[in-house]
Write a structure and sequence with these properties.
Chains A, B, C, D: InterPro entries: Beta-lactam/transpept-like, Glutaminase. The structure is a homotetramer. Chain A is α+β, with helices and mostly antiparallel strands. Chain A has 13 helices and 10 strands. Chain A has a 5-stranded antiparallel sheet with strand order 2-1-10-9-8. In chain A, strands 3-5-4 form a 3-stranded antiparallel sheet. Chains A and B meet through helix 11 and helix 12 of A and helix 11 and helix 12 of B.
Chain lengths: 309, 309, 309, 309
């Protein structure tokens, strides 16, 4: 698939003049400092090839994309029992809405809105000290990406702790409804650290390749989840992966994906490839502006949309 | 693909003891009278083959599935301008919620909730008398299914008119916000008639085949929409096609689809096949109970899920 | 109480330079044509005296103030059974919110928001043709004000019918929940006519005097409602009489009252007096701007606030 | 007014067989232990007389009634500027709803719902250590009631701290919107202690007498607030004092009042008397069941309703 590198190069050339577009997230102080003039894109195919352009080797804060890995761990621990604690429906409202939570008595709508991810984290913690839960996640992601260079950025984690009042509100709210087993501070401690995972496009694309490859990691050669579970995680990403912009992403890109406010987007072409794009400037629904454009171009030129070529 | 008939036969044999499960919709008097002990399933492949089991030749009220055809007509008329009148995001609430509409100032969340479909109908009417708009839809569906036997059940349409207070509320509400061009009575007259389309599984699977076949109807041999538009309609079905059960359907079945309270579900395996299933008993989110089960079995056994095999 | 005329004169003199402030309601075409440079105020005391200033003899559209008289009729018909159809709590949202109605399954929060008043009208219609129900209200108001000059402005009623989509939405919505006995068109026909009652400040103050006088009309000399019912209607006016500005009116004026978008406000000083003020320009919560100011001045200078002198 | 004692005795005799009705609040562990078979009622008149029946000398946890005293302190500190931080409209929803807060961007609807009271507490803290703010409140209430026996129940305060997840959610939520100046833990520390004020009916009726007496405390002989501010606090109690039961209380009792989940209700007959009733069993909207009944009887028999005699 030599064409693939050509496609990536073409996308990069076209988007180069636009690098810097969008608005860097400013509600987490340490993210606000990131240089917006960066763009990286990596595609890893199920046969193990890697294609990259731009700043694909620069680490960035993956933020909410970490929810995909945490969800995978939680499903591994409790299986379909997880759905007693969190729903599977798109939320129809902003990523940190508390209204939804009140209307549904403390059960978050899906595992990718903040409240849902906090509940998922609570499940992963089970039987662990907070520090161990973070360690488990870090080991898991390093294993998946086959790269011990993946780290957690302590300053970003701390930065979130200090400004994360809304997440404290969500967590306390779920606690009030009995949908949080561990102390709020423990759960959020882990949550803020998971969001502070620092990865490059290359590491991220490789780490998620198992979702494109029937649940197995062709790089590491081992099964991570069953084919059925891989499909289901992909389904959740497609319907719920971009907050209130999920419908729009499906409409324009047509791939299961998960975005983060650090400007990264991870996406999957089932049976074909996984990919990670990063550009810090966000569009008005909070997803990487150029990242979404790049994936729309990539899906159109490859015919990878799950909705038809 | 002789296996396909065997798969359908297997599903039918397994589900036969469960036929009659679920609860027939009772809020439309004429639908409440339907015999629940029926089940039909048809698959049409992009190479023009047709596979059926059970009551696949019995006409039923397709209800909300008609929204897919009306959306296709509306996009043909005004193109992407349509999205000024209606959104593209999953709704996160019941199919006939008026709350959403108030919060978003009369712009329905997507074209598949009732309010959105009413706005779409208003677009299709444009420049027509109501009777002509219904005629246009009927001709379109007959053309797509290559079958002049498709009819509109006048009694069902009338039955809805008399009990459709909530739809009258939705339409008047949009009118109050200036998001309805024609008189409420005209728009709902067309809307109730479109929902009363009476089709068999075979007719329905054939009518929607263009969505599996890059926008062209391999049976009739002509382009209906562009490949891009076909993908986009599929994306809307996947994220919004089953009201507040859309996430669940994506999770379990993994195919773009649209359900109706008459107990029908239409679904698409892009590039491969279109399919229609019908069984009147509904599950608690208002979709055909056995229909959803049958499609889950079908997707699992064929590996057609868009999220991986 | 010779001072009372002096107080009214003083208020009029002070407010004269401000007459014309606020914004005339424009959503009902016929109201939008009213000259904003008008101001009238009448106080009737329980000993039968009448004090007036300004345009107190000019008829205006009383709009929502009519809900007080309709509520009185409905309580006369079904007594406390009325509260099965409508609540008694302040609404915490705009006067025509449909959200509330969905959350509470078709039971309006109180009889003074539009939905509640529509339900009250449905109760009054019971056993009547629409025309008779309007006739009953007109006779009642003429009797209370001891003045056959009270009329209904047909053009205003018709004007509302044509633009009242939101009220049609509310009514159909309640109908969907089974909380409307008569056909939507009948109920709204009566509702739009009641809102089109045309009265002067003098007629209005006299018509509501029974609420200040233990339920009896000292002018006509007869009991209208029991003392207990008069208190209760006053309580409803105080907590719910000004839509989402009810708390503000209680805070600043301290009298039970009911406002209308025609710029009128009716208020009661229990045991002392009833009063009506009119000035067409509205403030941002939809109540007469100068009317509210005038009543605040009046309550302050007379010590009539129910919350202390 | 020798009759007053007779009226109280009569009410007590009639209600005696019903003592124990309702359900003791159980969400705060230490309140759940209170013996439900208690009932006390005290009336203090503006001429300094005190009338009591039943357990009027037994201290109970005044809970939300403390919000009236805290509001008085806050208005004393920042005056009408307070209304930039909190609204003055009835809430139309449960006392601890977070939905409202999100819809109105962190500005609570009124000072008597929990979020509003937390904002008020934040204002009172200003320039204080938490401990000092509690001390100030305690001194204020002791001064008002002319009784140094008023205490704060540390166990109740601690009990709330441990289960007050919803209040932590509300406070963090306001903090996220910038509507909380001090650290969440400090504000809630004070808040939980103010709710743990332990007072008898006699102390409470005396402490609030200034609200019936044009802002002055006839017992202590000094002005507490201006007559205008007393009226305004009374107005807030009438429209917002009983959460989602405020309209009902106005309808049945007709007096400004504030209830607490400890089973106490404080009420004011402006110009005449203040009163406190206590009975631990709550009705379904969370107010003292017998307390509300007793006040309805008292208002009916004395003619003290602000809405007419």
């Amino acid at each position: 698939m030599t064409d693939l590198q050509a496609i990536l190069d073409g996308i990069y050339t076209e988007l180069k003049p636009r690098i810097g577009e969008g608005r860097v997230a400013d509600y987490i102080p340490d993210l606000a400092k990131v240089d917006p003039n960066q763009f990286g894109l990596t595609v890893t195919t199920v046969d193990g090839k890697i294609y990259s352009v731009g700043d694909s080797a620069v680490p960035f804060s993956i933020q909410s994309i970490s929810k995909v890995f945490m969800l995978t761990l939680a499903l591994g621990k409790v299986g379909e029992q997880l759905w007693k604690r969190v729903g599977r429906e798109p939320s129809g409202s902003a990523f940190n809405s508390i209204v939804q939570l009140e209307e549904e008595s403390g059960i978050p709508r899906n595992p990718f809105i903040n409240a849902g991810a906090i509940a998922v984290t609570d499940v992963v913690i089970s039987g662990h000290a907070p520090r161990e839960a973070i360690g488990e996640l870090l080991r898991f992601v390093r294993y998946l990406s086959d790269d011990d260079g993946v780290t957690i950025d302590g300053r970003v984690a701390k930065s979130e702790t200090h400004t994360g009042f809304r997440n404290f509100a969500l967590a306390n709210f779920m606690k009030a409804y009995g949908n949080l087993e561990h102390p709020v501070e423990h759960v959020l401690g882990v949550y803020f650290h998971q969001c502070a995972l620092s990865m490059t496009c290359e590491q991220l694309a490789k780490a998620g390749l198992f979702l494109a490859a029937r649940g197995s990691n062709p790089v590491a050669g081992l099964s991570v989840v069953s084919p059925k579970r891989a499909r289901r995680i992909n389904a959740l990403m497609l319907t719920c992966g971009h907050y209130d912009g999920s419908g729009d992403f499906a409409y324009h890109v047509g791939l299961p994906g998960k975005s983060g406010v650090g400007g990264g987007i991870f996406a999957v072409a089932p049976g074909i490839a996984s990919m990670a794009v990063w550009s810090p400037g966000l569009n008005k629904v909070g997803n990487s502006q150029l990242g979404a454009v790049a994936l729309e171009m990539l899906a159109a030129r490859t015919g990878w949309s799950v909705f038809g070529d």
